[in-house]
Amino acid sequence: MAIMTPVTLEELWKAVLGEMELSLSRAHFTTWFKNTLIVARDQNSVTVSVPNGFVKEWLENKFNRQILLSVRKLSNEIREVKYIVGQPKSEPIRQDISKIINEKEFQEQATIDQSQDIDKTTHLNKKYSFDSFIVGSANELAFSCAQGVVASLGKLYNPLFIYGGVGLGKTHLIQSIGNKVSSESADRRVLYTSGEKLTATIVESIRNRTIEDIKNLYSRLDLLIIDDIQYIAGKDKTQEIVFTIFNELHNRNKQVIMTSDRPPKAIPTIEERLRSRMEGGMVADIGTPDFETRLAIIKVKAQERGCSLSDDVLSYIATHIQKNIRELEGALNRVVALAQIYNRPPDLKEVKNILNAYLAVPYRKTSPQVILKTVAEFYNITPTDLTKRSRKKEVVKPRQVSMYLLREEIKLSFPDIGQKLGGRDHSTVIHACEKIKREEAVSEPLKNELIMIRQRIYDSFE
């Protein structure tokens, strides 16, 4: 694509990062592109500074072609991307912050801003509030429950268990509860943590023989918020401590809020007594946002970024980015970056062009092995279990899901699917595919599970 105006090194790398962020998971993008920037350019090449040799090798071997294609969209004379560790002092970057912030400075400032937003006592992010949470048909029950918890802490919905797929707003909503409770009563003791951090804290306290101190600390809270509780699955000692803390808080009418990527009954290797506690209050799901909600989110986010986009551009983004809110924001970031580069709002044709590569991502080719492995891992069984003759409930459903995805994602024939799953008859496969397809249309939990499994399938190629 011919460039419209000359771009600085900072603008060029900002555009590349915008494209990479949309084609990668957040974890992968942060791992491989944090603290990277273009430090030099000659007639036919650009040089990218990376923080260490491991990142250098990974970008060269895994992402070089994609990076080069992104660079050439704005500077088609570039034929090569080089990588160096660190920024050489002899080649300072010409900075032009009048249009766009240097990527490294932007990342450092974002880290500073984020740390300033985090309350050191509650661990809540101050930016999350009910006012900025967009309510739609897919999340209105969870939102209503969240407001009910604030109005009657520890009494109405206790515990409150919210589940849904990645990037749908669970963290935003539960932290809004915490911030609202803290703002209304400064003497209430509130703590936000994740299942992963809680597990690490418990393991460390056991090692240091301070587990009683930890239990006492958590048990004195008025509101305990645990994000991604599914991370404690299979960790028996952690579950035992969490159950003890939960009982202590519940007996004192203190509030517990939890989130997960699936409902309690679908979390594998969770103690039955803990699962029963999770289901003992209110269980609410957050589904994929509908068009009206997506459009409202895009409008608000564009206003926050000071970017004025036409209604047809906003509608196009909301129509074509349907999976989750995080991807909506990623698409918008890409469009905003384009607006900054050209110093004007992009038209619909330009937006279609810049989002075209991302919109094609879900249609990447996968393989039967990847699908079977991903499904097995998701349901906490082995790939071999899928091929056995077992009729256990915990195996039958994953097997049917595998059949459905093998048919939907790579269009295998019914006999081929049967062969890959233990030599089953094609009529069995047809029945399974039709069953899962019917249930996907009416079951929000299954729909969310299939979304998450598909995400993991295609993330495996990154």
Task: Produce the secondary structure layout.
Blueprint lengths: L8 H15 L2 H8 L3 E5 L3 E6 L2 H22 L5 E6 L17 H15 L22 H12 L8 E5 L5 H15 L5 E5 H13 L3 H9 L3 E5 L8 H16 L3 E6 L11 H7 L3 E5 L4 H14 L6 H10 L4 H18 L5 H12 L8 H11 L4 H5 L5 H18 L3 H7 L5 H17 L1 H16 L3
Parallel strand pairs: 2-3, 4-7, 4-8, 5-6, 6-7
Antiparallel strand pairs: 1-2
What is the compact description of this entry?
The chain is of the alpha/beta class.
Strand order of the largest sheet: 5-6-7-4-8
* Order of secondary-structure elements: HHEEHEHHEHEHHEHEHEHHHHHHHHHH
Mean pLDDT: 83
CATH architecture of the largest domain: 3-Layer(aba) Sandwich
Structural Rg:
24 Å
Number of E-type strands: 8
CATH class of the largest domain: Alpha Beta
Number of contiguous helices? 20
In CATH, the homologous superfamily of the largest domain goes by the name P-loop containing nucleotide triphosphate hydrolases
Question: Which segments are poorly predicted (pLDDT under 50) over 5 or more consecutive residues?
Answer: 1-5, 88-113
- Could you state the oligomeric state of the chains shown? single chain
Share of helical residues: 55-70%
- The number of distinct structural domains comes to 4
Q: By helix and strand content, what is the structural category? A: alpha/beta
Q: In the CATH scheme, what's the topology name of the largest domain?
A: Rossmann fold
Q: Assign an overall shape.
A: globular
Please describe the biggest sheet, giving its number of strands, its sense, and whether it closes into a barrel: 5 strands, parallel
Strand content: 5-15%
